[in-house]
Amino acid sequence: MKQYEFSARTQDEAVELGLQELGVSIADVEVQVVEEGSKGLFGLFGSRPVKIRMTLKDAEEDPLADLLEDNKPAKKAEKKAEKTEKKAEKAEQKAEKKAEPKAEPKAEKKPEEKKPAKAEKKAEKKAEPAGEAEKAEKPEKAEKPEIKPMEKPEVTMIAADALTEDSPAGIAHAFLAELTKLMGVDVTIDMGTDAEGNVYGYINGDTLGILIGRRGETLDAVQYLTSLKVNRGREGYTRVTLDTENYRAKREDTLIRLANRMANRALRTGRKVSLEPMNPYERRIIHYALQQTDGVATHSEGDEPNRHVVITNKK
Fold first, then answer.
1. Boundary (domain end) residue, out of 196, 221, 245
2. How many Å separate Cα 194 from the centre of its chain?
3. Same domain for 163 and 230?
């Protein structure tokens, strides 16, 4: 893991400087304070800056990151096929070279014509594994059914001047504006509702990953607090969903690909596969995705915050 050190007057300034220099978000690094620093006497004499160490996280730390790897068995099969084809071409070339000088003096007997034919047959036999390699790829592709993303509700956006203070969307907007201001994040907030009256908030701006956090933990926490604020003292329940930097869509795509991969593992091994702990929203995505896959079933085990999805083979 690569490490970098940065210094500034305060810890927040050092972190912001490091993120800008590395061009990453806070979710991509681990921050360790090397020197606390001090203001010195009366803030004038003996002051020392805060020094931090930033460690770039490896992609292997997140089990979802390995979904982006290429299909290695398919690549090996392709390389094998290419090698056999090259060997076949060389065999044909050698056969032609041997046939040319002998064909001129003894044109009647033509013994050389048989050699290229044999070479061609050998070349065809050698080239057969390439076709087998292509066939070997088909079962792997067949194991991966196409999983459609979850259906999204139709959201109607509300203009800022049309928000009322006592409406769920207006309460959520006011709360988020105050919270992001206290966090020191300069953003704009767009609000909308669906047909059932649920609230959707889209936070836009240079958040530097502060509002997302590691695997969306900070965004989920802000969403939970906003939901408490909106539903306080109200009858019924209004669902609140927040998003920034299109994180929700990216995370959903990653989870669907993870579900597909783990379902294939369960089918191949015949054993149950347990996923990492997830929040209810992410578990719902996994359950929904694998409803479209034949041969597997899903259920949740454990207690919050360690509740996780288990995939089992029906066969």
1. 245
2. 27
3. yes
pLDDT at 279: 87
What residues are paired with 214 via a beta bridge?
Answer: none
Count CA atoms closer than 13 A to 195's CA, side-chain side. Answer: 3
For residues 205 and 203, what is the distance between their CA atoms, to the nearest angstrom?
A: 7
State the chain's mean pLDDT as an integer: 76
* Nearby residues of 133 by Cβ (< 8 Å), 6 or more positions away: 77, 78, 80, 81
Domain hosting 132: range is: 72-142
Q: Residue 122: which residues within 8 A CB-CB, separation 6 or more?
A: 91
CATH number at residue 209: 3.30.300.20
Per-residue pLDDT tens over the stretch 130-149: 444 444 444 444 444 555 66
What is the DSSP-derived secondary structure letter of residue 303?
-
Which among 120, 142, 164 is the end of a domain? 142
Bridge-partner residues for 7, per DSSP?
51
| Model confidence at 222: pLDDT above 70 | yes
Q: What is the pLDDT of residues 72-127, one digit of tens each?
A: 444 445 555 566 666 666 666 666 665 554 444 444 444 444 444 454 555 454 54
52 assigned to some structural domain: yes
pLDDT at 80: 56
Q: Where are the beta strands (DSSP E) in 9-94?
A: 29-35, 50-56
Residue 224, token pair as written in the block? 């939970």
Which residues does 20 contact at the CB level (< 8 Å), separation at least 6? Answer: none
Query: Is the pTM above the cut of 0.90?
Result: no
Does the CA dihedral 74-80-84-90 come out positive or negative? positive
Task: Tell me whether residue 25 is exposed, middle or buried, using C-beta atoms within 10 angstroms of its C-beta: 0 to 12, 13 to 18, 19 or more.
Answer: middle
User: How deeply is 43 buried, as exposed, middle or buried, from its count of CB atoms within 10 A (0-12, 13-18, 19+)?
Assistant: exposed
The structural domain count of the chain equals 4
CA distance 265 to 268: 5
H-run or E-run covering 158: strand 156-158
Asked if 215 contacts 61 with a C-beta cutoff of 8 angstroms, the reply is: no
